[in-house]
Amino acid sequence: MGGRHDQWRARGDFKQFSRNNKGKFGGIGIQVGYDRSNRGLLTVISPMVGTPAYEAGVLAGDTIVKIDGKNTDNMRIDEAVDLIQGDPDSLITLTVVHDGGKEPVEIPIRRAIIKVQSVLGDKRKENKEWDYFLDQNSKIGYLRISSFSETASAEVKDVIVNLQKEGAKGLILDLRNNPGGLLKAAVEISDMFLSEGKIVSTRGRNQQEEVIDARPEGTMFLPAEKYPIAVLINRNSASASEILAAALQDHNRAVVIGERSYGKGSVQNIIDLENKSSALKLTTASYWRPSGKNIHRFPDSKETDEWGVKPNPDYEIILKDEERLEFLLDRSDKDVVRDKKPDAKKADKKPFVDRVLEKAVEYINNHKEKAALDNLQPRVS
């Protein structure tokens, strides 16, 4: 069932693809990139809290000038990542220049298994861990799922259990810019909020439709009418993100807010090649919503056709390109782990207003108010 998402992944790409899905790898725990404000040099975007790099003193904004003595001039990102990652317990030395510093500093670091968080908050607490409440007063929980990795469903469950213990009264699931991941993770997370009914089905050539249903045990945030849920999506929410959003929307368990999703409803199997050093990612079937509607956007699909996930009526929020960029920059800035306060220019900058998130908060607060009024109505017995 060939399609535009069929792919062959060579050694380097396949290694990274496998790491992304597993949610862990051997490394030091930093995000690297080319910072335009830093003359395009290889830069630490952010260290990850609790990792070897963080504990060794690697800071956001550090310029990486050498990796184990190898100069990083003209080095590609994937080459740098391959040099930095390696067997747990092995040593690596980064030579960095701290932001605002002049002299290079050698930092020896011992690699470890790095677990990449799939579930993030909106902001950090003072201890730099994620805060999964938007604010303590509203008791609105907020989970940003960045990918549907092998660890994603367990992470979501842990956060939800803690939110319920702390008295959460509503929940926002942010799937914006989530490209998808594993079907199993999407199904398990959907099942946490649904006690019955179809989650998703798959259809392929020459094969019977396969239906995956929710199970009654283990459902959280019940009763549903007391605990509203909002799901945030945009045009980059794809695949597993669309399965979760569609399942909760079709069962009226959540309102979907934002933009129409990407429309990637293809089922892909991974076929290992060359002793698992490369792989063929082959499209074999397509996903269908509980309502029976199609998710996949085919090459000849029109805007008026049925594909992807659309926001609920009155909850579509179209962003201009400038606003979209501001959102990405604001989100990136919040994700950085800093040991010092941002400079005065950033502190004086007008804060970005996330209209999609504001709409979700408005929905949940309105729902909470309605539930409170309903509780005041006299009961006939």
If you had to describe this structure to a student in words, what would you say it looks like?
With 381 residues, this protein is α+β, with helices and mostly antiparallel strands. The chain folds into 2 domains: 24-115, PDZ domain (Pdz3 Domain, Roll), CATH 2.30.42; 119-369, 2-enoyl-CoA Hydratase, Chain A, domain 1 (Alpha-Beta Complex), CATH 3.90.226. 27% of the residues lie in helices and 27% in strands. It has 9 helices and 20 strands. The protein has helices at residues 11-22, 52-56, 77-84, 152-165, 183-193, 240-250, 321-335, 344-348, 355-376, and strands at residues 7-9, 24-27, 30-35, 41-47, 63-67, 70-71, 91-97, 105-110, 112-115, 119-120, 123-124, 130-131, 140-145, 170-174, 198-204, 207-213, 229-233, 255-258, 266-273, 278-288. Strands 1, 15, 16, 19 and 20 form a 5-stranded antiparallel sheet that branches. A 5-stranded mixed sheet has the order 10-13-14-17-18, with helices on both faces. A hairpin with a 7-residue loop joins strand 7 and strand 8 (105-110). Helix 4 runs parallel beside helix 5 and helix 5 packs parallel to helix 6. The longest helix has 22 residues, at 355-376. It is globular and about 65 Å long. The N and C termini lie far apart (59 Å). Mean pLDDT is 85; it is low at 1-18.
